[in-house]
Write the structure tokens for this entry.
Amino acid sequence: MSSKVTRVAAANSREALHHFQQLLQYETDCWDVHHAISNRRKDFVLLDVRAESLYEQGHIPTAENLPQHKINEKRLSQYLPDTLFVVYCAGPHCNGTEKAAIQLAQLNRPVKKMIGGITGWLDEGFSLVQTSVEA
């Protein structure tokens, strides 16, 4: 009797290698982003694609806020065409990263998703920063 895990056979090693190598072309994780930031090796633009009010409440250090629905060529004109954008939103329950990644790809911009978003960042024990709002 087989379990639900083994009922469908695993891909052969060559296919699995291809799949997981491909996956890393589209995604990165909180640890890798944190390491790049902490070691001053950040060679990408980290985009928080949530609403500005959520960004102000807490965001990942060095992240820039560009809500997903505001991504357009004019807003990206300050960046070189080969700039890699790493996008994140609230977490696994949010598809803002996918929407942002689609828009960036449609504008011929390199893009990766930071899996986990804010939820993953906090789960790893990393801190957020707040934007001070002047009264």
